[in-house]
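Job type: complex structure
Entries:
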Amino acid sequence: MMTEEQLIASVKAGNAHAYRSLVSMHQSLVFTMVYRRVNSREDAEEIAQDVFVKAYRYIASFKGDAKFSTWLCSIANNSTSTFLSKRKMVFNELNERHEQQEDHQILSTPEEEQLKLIERALLKLPADDAQIISLFYQGEQSLTEIAIILQMETNAVKVKLHRARVKLKTTIEQLTIQK
Amino acid sequence: MERDEKILEYIDGLLSAEEAEQVREKIATNGEWKAQYDSFLEMNALLNSTELLTPSSTFVDQTMALIDTETKAESKSVSPILRFFQLTGWLWLGLTMLLFTDFNTSVFSQLVQLGIADFAFISKSGIHLLFGNSAMLWVFGVMFIAYIAVSNYDEDNSLFKEMLN
């Protein structure tokens, strides 16, 4: 089993098949990051595929200064911004649609209920807040790495993440009361 | 609020030892701090247990197919200079075959006989100067076709491979 570094080196040497493993390793991260902003699985898949094609094309420029996942998230963030500026999507309408879909789902175990509650709360948050929370918790990116991805100062990321978490907590409380 | 920020930084482990101690003390002595701390801690645990979303099962295959298509398109792309020589080469070969096939059955002959074209303005010596003698031209023609075939050779999906199979 090759490590991530070995796979990257192999792709750089011209082995396209090694890239399949890298796509498999990072597909969920890139997909989630994009989905948090576009709120559509179809669009998120299309953008995420575009991200991996771009990353393959420019992999020679990846020097390993940051984590490969950070580099991918950076490309994903730029690609999503370009997509959104082209489409000028209305998030609120999409959020409502997703909430309706969630409401129809049958909840099972308390743990699953809690996870679905988090997911619903994330959908209610502004896209940027949901993305920064996902990057920090699910993407396991540090504040410095998030700053690279979002092209922001680390302190600004810290403040933004703090505000996003407080908003999330309030949203969870509201949803719990509604239930 | 500063309290929430401190609690979150405490949970994240971003505070200095001295600051962390101050927050620990506040949580232990102040009910509001304790309630808020427990609430954030619970949310943190939930967020940490949340997994990444997964794309469709065909995502990797589709992505690799896109990359494959792009790689093939790049390998097939010919530089404008080479393309120029290819086109002029084909033109040259075509003209040569037309001019030096038996004149009575050639397309030129048919055009002249039908009165559509008159090639009298091209002197025989001029043609020979441009295209040399016919035997040599056929040799050059075959070499040129071979050159084009090699320059367009596609390793994975070549005409040669199909012919061999």
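Summary: The mean pLDDT of chain A is 87. DSSP finds nine helices and no strands in chain A.
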